[in-house]
Amino acid sequence: MDIFIVGGSGRVGLELAKSLRDKNHNVVVGNRSPEKIDADGFQTVKLDLTESVSDIAEAIGKVDIVYFTAGSRGKDLLQIDAFGAVRTMLAAEKNNIKRYIMLSAYESLNPDAWDEKPYSDLREYYEAKFLADKYLMDSTQLAYTILQAVALEEEAGNGKGDHATEQTVTIPDVGLALAELAEQDNAIGKVVTISNGDKDITTLMKEV
User: Fold this and answer.
1) CA distance 160 to 120
2) What is the pLDDT of residues 34-89, one digit of tens each?
3) How far is CA 34 from CA 9, 65, 128, 208, in A?
4) Helix (H) or strand (E) holding 29
5) Is 25 left (phi over 0), alpha (psi -120 to 50) or beta?
6) Preceding omega of 172 cis (within 30 degrees of 0)
7) What is the pLDDT of residue 24?
8) 27 has a pLDDT exceeding 90
9) Residue 9: its pLDDT value, please?
10) 24-58 burial, b if ≥16 CB within 10 A, otherwise e?
11) What spatial distance separates the first Cα and last Cα of the chain, rounded to whole Å?
């Protein structure tokens, strides 16, 4: 399949690109500074999430799946994490792309949880993710899947995971879980969670 990753220079985005490449998909990674991406086996293009929907649609082109893994790390939550995501959804629909997979955060759709730590420390981030996720679910015709990851852990992955049974998840295993969703039509229209665990991630994503 032809796949476009929005935000592919980030920690998860790069792991996703590698996992999709290893599955023999044609991968294009979009980022504001593509020259900074260590691309090995996939293409890179310039993509600025603050530009117009038409510009973003032109950068994305005609692909089978769009992934959104971008994030501003708290620097521009409205323009990148919230409305930047919305622009890519509108661009996907403009290009008649049906499949859209969103990387999100555990409890992003549950505002009641944000009053307690660790969510309360990142309330504005969760608000941005909520807005993007809800727009995807309620205001588009995209065949979406939302993967909600718990706190990211910079450790080596082992191809194992579970559905939010632990508080952390390794970055490579999030990338692997996202890559597995590309081939799982059973995940369309669903919100899926991922954490560390002892189950095979391929099997886990097939059974959602």
Assistant:
1) 29
2) 777 777 788 899 999 999 999 999 999 999 999 999 988 888 999 999 999 999 99
3) 8, 20, 25, 34
4) strand 26-31
5) beta
6) no
7) 93
8) yes
9) 72
10) ebebbbbbeebeebebeebebeebbbebebebbbe
11) 22
